[in-house]
Batch of 2 targets.
Target 1
Amino acid sequence: MHLTREEERMLDGEYGEAVRKAMELIVSIGEALGAERLVPITSAHVSGISVSNIGAEGVELIEWFARHGGRARVRATVNPMGFDLDGVIPRDPREWSLQERLLRALSVMGFHLTLTCAPYEHGNRPGLGEHIAWAESSAVIYANSVLGARSNREGGIVALAAAITGRIYEWGMHLDEERNPRVRVTLRGWRPRDEAEAGLLGALLGLRVREVPLLEARLPGLEEARSLLAAAAAWGSHALIHLEGHTPERRACVKCEKVEVDRAELTAFHEEHFDDIEGSDAVFIGCPHVTIDVMRLVEAYAEKCGGFRIPVLVAAPGVCKLRPSAQNLVILRGTCPVVARLESLGFDKIATNSLKAAFYLPRRHGIRVAVADAKTLLRYACNPRSRA
Ligand code: F3S
């Protein structure tokens, strides 16, 4: 791999032990992938910062980088952790103390403790053509598809090493030709009406399409785009989908394979994989983390109904200042219910508008899932005995 003089000096340890180790990691992965050189990045986003994921060894590794002078050279943020900031989800004291150590080490290194999977809403918003190293699948696909920035789906520790060196290997989504659409997706006589349907479509694309798709259908808005993208990344391995009206890069679909999705397929997928909303113990909104518009919607329903009859869990960024303002409204700040110990809250069935949550909740927590759009979920939470 060709390295610049400065990159060689990093690798030789002239910038300290942490930079040397981080550079070694980036270069060895880049060489294994066949990358010819590194590119400077403008932003990093690190995931996998839950103690339940990385354990004590992971915490010690990140502390090692902090102790040996590792500092973020670029704008750098972190994903949600395994605990919410307000202690709604019970904390095991040993795990919580490890989590606090981890947050301290990240903070010493200059990472902003945004604790969100939507960093682009909270100060880490790269622009068109910027090379970045992000490690949260829903954020990566949003950055590539909506912002036009360039990131592969990195692992957490690789994103950390990229933040410390300010470099990532030039491979995959960083290369112009890899970003061309290869599959043209059309919808026969329909389009998603809300974020839940957009998520169902995203899940189908995740399962059916392997290469970069171009969706020839306009989604109602950005919330639907976010939902579709997060679902496609969770149910498949996508890092980029070209979306009409959202993707800033204009790319022609030359010799594209064609895929058609009809509404009957969407309905069959929904019925086959998910429960009916009736009998749900709780509603979950905020995967990816809730936006201000959706939060306003939740609060409007809470006010109209005089509080909810069943818990409405809303996952929000750690930097969010909101506090619950209604009965049964539970704001989970800074955490991701998929990695948190959600089972300790005792729910059997959760209704959500997120197809990413619907993918992970049964697999991680054995919780049954119903899927519907946010308005339907909130009406149900207002009055679970009437049909939503
Ligand atoms: Fe965010 Fe967790 Fe969903 S990281 S995208 S709330 S699975």
Target 2
Amino acid sequence: MTKKEIIFYLSGGNDRELFERSSAIRYSMLGRKVYLRGLIELSNICSCDCLYCGIRQSNSNVKRYLLSKQEVLQSARYAYDNGWGSLVIQSGELCSDYFTTLIEELVQEIKTLSGGELAITLSCGEQSKDTYRRWLEAGADRYLLRIESSTQELFERIHPQNISYTKRLNTLQSLIDCGFQTGSGVMIGLPLQTIDNLADDMLFLANCGIVMCGMGPYIEHCETPLFKYNSEFSHSQRVQLTLRCIAILRILRPKINIASSTALGTLSKQARHQAMEVGANVIMPNITPEDIRANYSLYQGKISDLDLNSFDIEYFNQGIPLEVTSK
Ligand code: 5AD
């Protein structure tokens, strides 16, 4: 697909054709399968001040937490006992020795409790090569680090000065070089973001060497500096754009793993299902201990239970040509 074609589809030029093309690829390459990855939100303590993020360091309204090892292992056991193949440990960005060692030990212990069967994805921000190597050696399999926007100017507008676009690109590359199955992604509908920027994002994600992608609509959080800037796109337009982005990436990269994000589910439950039909093949149900979840508030209204056991499974089993699989 050329950039021109991508822009045509992103602009709503022919949704029907786009979604037919992407679903055909989805079903021929990946069948009906939807993979579950249990999401554990380890901590909302963060050293970064990203302008869009509700748990940014400067937001003093956030009640900060760090799960105990035991809580993480309990969640991991839940995933394992239910036959899920994979876990994601996500956290605010911390670089202390304590944190590095904690992740290392958690990875080792989860591998032990699952007899090596649970795959572990980490999503703990930018770290040194050394740290990535330690986590990989401990047994982590995959790493998610979103580029957020591949347009340097926009990236710089939504991040504080100490977060560098070039460093983010290099860090993404170092994850790939290190041997992680690496994922990335972007937010869709940011203030100042244009269709042209999003077309560049799709080409970036298709060509940067990643094997997983999570992208979702930007959702305002009133306790962040970005709140006062308006997006060009309404929430429902962002939902539609996200579906188009997923479909386009599926066409560009037939085999890549694409998550149907929590942010998409927050704006529209139905869209999270549609996403699966037009190209996504991964959902990440939240298995953080329930009493803690509300504190991991990246954006307003973030759904805290993905309610997978009732609504979704029922949906998937009601003749929709998809099949939830644990592995
Ligand atoms: N809206 C949507 N997504 C957000 N994230 C952080 N803040 C927001 C927001 N306001 C996403 C970022 C980050 C991921 C963990 O959550 O893309 O990488």
